[in-house]
From TrEMBL:
Substrate binds at Q19, H120, N164, Y296, W418, E425, W426. It catalyses: Hydrolysis of terminal, non-reducing beta-D-glucosyl residues with release of beta-D-glucose. GO terms for cellular component: cytosol. GO terms for molecular function: beta-glucosidase activity. GO terms for biological process: cellulose catabolic process. The active site is at E165 (proton donor), E371 (nucleophile). It comes from Serinibacter salmoneus. It comes from the Bacteria. This is Beta-glucosidase. Its EC number is 3.2.1.21.
């Protein structure tokens, strides 16, 4: 017998509102920063926008049926803040709330647990116009939004996730400018880090105030898995510095109740952390039912010559500004080995290491792999079938890596494949495909790839199939 997962282990798939919904100007939805950014000339590949995306807003019943056919235990989706509360404050939009109630009701009736993310990057444009995440008022507005969603949808949600990948929101949005809103202001990026952390804490507290202490609240982080290029103390310190800005800037306040002292020292020339008000850290440090980790690849670093600009091989669109705020003497090495279509390496052992490290650092905190997957150039046969052996191999290797961590004692309770559908891949537009299900962007027809059939077999049997078991 091969690798077998317990019946209590959660297998799911995931999407995000702006990436799949479309209907950008329908149903009372207001504009988000991604509407504005994607319509900015040169911001996205081929000028692609999320105006239509996968048209999930109109085709959600079909997509729920795909989830049923996959047999997944859970579905991770996000609410579009500007769809339910245009402008980010004030009255709710009944039509937007009703849309999510319909989707969540259908999921529950199908026996699929909804894992709902409150923020997957589509900030209402009006809040950005007022300063965006670098200002405290945005975190306070998020608290009101979270409270309203708990009241309106709390009876239908299994687990609430406050934020998805705040690293991207802060650093790619406000430092490198390769994500919405496209700003390149390092000091503002650090203020955004704190106010995203604060928004998480305020939202978690508000949800529990509305629904009770037993409400299931989590957060999802894209923790970077750094490795030193050598055994030298200098390269080890480069890992420490990168880990501080990329990871501990979030895990410190959220999980430990404080910003790491070395991070504060490293960033002294960028910010004095004056945006941290009395009581903020206590608010941010909220109990979690699980920590969500999004994992795709690893990063190797070394200490560079003083004054050398950090190089970024994260696979994002070109920018003259680095997302690595305050880091000027670390070199990120080019990825090696077979790369995905995003230019990311494939190193499953990084996922095992990450899960074991977090399990050791935070015993008693369950872990969930809330995103994992790969973009490849799909092979479409003449009869329309989609053969994607590289994606199947990637999934098998990384799910095996999850099992390896569990065998060594890590408390991992679930895995969500990214993504259910091919979709709008942010600044890459529609040029990168992560889906288990292919979307023809001209007809919007959905077609199961071999990876979907393979994943359905895994979910049904709880045993990791061979790569060629796609029938």
């Amino acid at each position: 017998m091969g690798i077998v997962f317990p019946p209590t282990f959660t297998f799911g798939s995931a999407t995000a509102s702006y990436q799949i919904e479309g209907a950008a100007a329908e149903g009372g939805r207001g504009p988000s920063i991604w509407d504005t950014y994607s319509h900015t000339p040169g911001a996205t590949e081929f000028g692609d926008t999320g105006d239509v995306a996968c048209d999930h807003y109109h085709r959600w019943r079909e997509d729920v049926q795909h989830l049923v056919d996959l047999g997944v235990d859970a579905y991770r989706l996000s609410i579009a803040w500007p769809r339910v509360q245009p402008g980010g404050s004030g009255p709710l939009n009944p039509e937007g709330v009703a849309f999510y109630r319909e989707v969540l009701t259908a999921l529950n009736e199908a026996g699929i647990k909804p894992y709902v993310t409150l923020y997957h990057w589509d900030l209402p444009q009006e809040l950005e116009d007022a300063g965006g995440w670098p200002v405290r008022e945005t975190a306070l507005a998020f608290e009101g939004y979270a409270r309203a969603m708990a009241r309106e949808l709390g009876d239908l949600v299994h687990t609430w996730t406050t934020l998805n990948e705040p690293w991207c929101s802060a650093y790619l949005g406000y430092a490198s400018g390769v994500h919405a809103p496209g700003r390149t202001e390092p000091a503002a990026a650090m203020a955004a880090v704190h106010h995203l952390n604060l928004a998480h804490g305020l939202a978690a507290r508000a949800i529990r105030e509305e629904l009770g202490a037993e409400a299931r609240v989590s957060v999802t982080l894209n923790v970077h898995q750094f490795y030193a290029a050598s055994d030298s103390p200098e390269d080890a310190d480069a890992v420490r510095q990168m880990d501080g800005i990329a990871n501990r800037a979030f895990t410190g306040p959220m999980l430990d109740g404080a910003y790491p002292e070395d991070l504060v020292a490293d960033l002294a020339e960028v910010t004095d952390f004056a945006f941290v008000a009395e009581g903020d850290l206590e608010v941010i440090h909220q109990p979690l039912v699980a920590l969500g980790l999004n994992y795709y690849s690893t990063t190797y670093v070394r200490r560079a010559v003083e004054g050398m600009s950090v190089s970024d091989n994260a696979g994002h669109r070109a920018s003259t500004t680095s997302p690595w705020v305050g880091v000027t003497t670390v070199e990120i090495l080019p990825p090696e080995g077979p790369l995905t279509a995003m230019g990311w390496n494939q190193e499953p052992r990084g996922l095992t290491d990450q899960l074991l490290e977090f399990s050791a650092r935070y015993p008693g905190l369950p872990l969930m792999v809330t995103e994992n997957g790969a973009a490849f150039e799909d092979e479409v046969s003449p009869d329309g079938a989609v053969h994607d052996p590289k994606r199947v191999a990637y999934l098998q290797d990384h799910i095996a890596a999850v099992a390896a961590a569990m065998e060594q004692g890590a408390d991992v309770q679930g895995y969500f494949a990214w993504s259910l559908l091919d979709n709008f891949e942010w600044a890459w537009g529609y040029a990168r495909r992560f889906g288990l299900i292919r979307v023809d962007y001209e007809t919007l027809e959905r077609t199961w790839k071999d990876s979907a059939r393979w994943y359905a077999r895994l979910v049904a049997t709880r045993e990791l199939p061979e790569v060629d078991a796609v029938g």
